[in-house]
Amino acid sequence: MANFLSLFLLCFCSILLGVEAIDMGTFGPVFSVEEENMILALKRKLQLLEEAGKLKELKEQWRQKIQENFKRPKSVDGIISTVEARSFHHDPTLVIEHDIQTPKGDYLARKGDRLNPILVMKPEKGFLFINGEDTEQIDFAKQHFEHFDVVLVAGSPLDAEQQLKVPVFFDQGGYLTTHYGIKQVPALLSVDHNLLLIREVKP
Asked: What pLDDT score was predicted for residue 37?
């Protein structure tokens, strides 16, 4: 789990460190917002549903939907099984866009500094992205999970864990595959010196 979090943080830092709030000023007249309290409105709607005898049914629908999403998350769009193998590097180096200071005023980084997260939190293992609905890719993962954590782009993490006997993660919303430019699976992501090496291969 810690290894997967390091991958997520590696990806997330590139966004986090480059974000800065900007005051765009005020345009036009400003009016007070008079809206009904959202919580009170929600309570009233739930009360109406309960009075109509529909709240229990709605709760059951929510429960089933949550279970379905947990067992089988939505597949990542735009990812296909590897047609033509390719490999490429991803440079995770970040350019700090503004000074970063502690509450005491000490500088952690200054604007323009370059930071390579790999030098700070090098993953213990690589990462293998697969389609959990493809039996060939599951078999491929069985040959590599000792050196790679498995991340699904489709299929059921629970089913994959039962087959592989190891923890399996899911690329929710395609966040990781989009960030690292992965278009085909199986895809192996590993550290190559100070860069990340991505290899889209055929199982």
From this structure: 73
